[in-house]
Amino acid sequence: MIDLLEMESEHMERTFLMVKPDGVQRGLIGRIISRFEDKGFTLVACKVVQVTENQAKIHYAEHDGKDFFLNLVNFITSGPVVAMVWEGDDIIALSRVVNGKTNVNEAQPGSIRGDFAAHTPKNLIHGSDSPESSKREIANFFEDHELVKYDKTISSWI
Ligand code: IDP
Fold it and tell me: Does the keyword ATP-binding belong to this entry (predicted)?
């Protein structure tokens, strides 16, 4: 019989999550962080930062060339953000469900965007979409030593 409490995770991932300037300005930092804590994920790094233009261009490199690229850069540098690294099983895909769809008209109630966002570009939260972008985005905002490794005793129940 499989001992569920002792099961080693083969799906542990890290992801980069960012409360965007609209989330900070609207006073939603705490409620957004709560969504990921409630899901059982572990916060391993967190800081309030003013994104530089260079960081913004690296962060949104996949959108370089699109007509909304400059708006994206302007928006993400328009005020402070909360940059975070979170850890958890399959967190890259699962945190995007917590975030909700990019287009706020399609974001489900219960998701961050579904509950709090009213206009698509201002959709409050960013989450990495793949292990590769997660690595690149974390490295764009954090040094290795800023990521803290720790276990929570509750982990085996999640
Ligand atoms: P995601 O944030 O859900 O991962 P991406 O496709 O990576 O979505 O887009 C990054 C951000 O760019 C979105 O969160 C949104 O703010 C903005 N964005 C995406 N598509 C459009 C668009 O067609 N017009 C304007 N802004 C867009």
Answer: yes
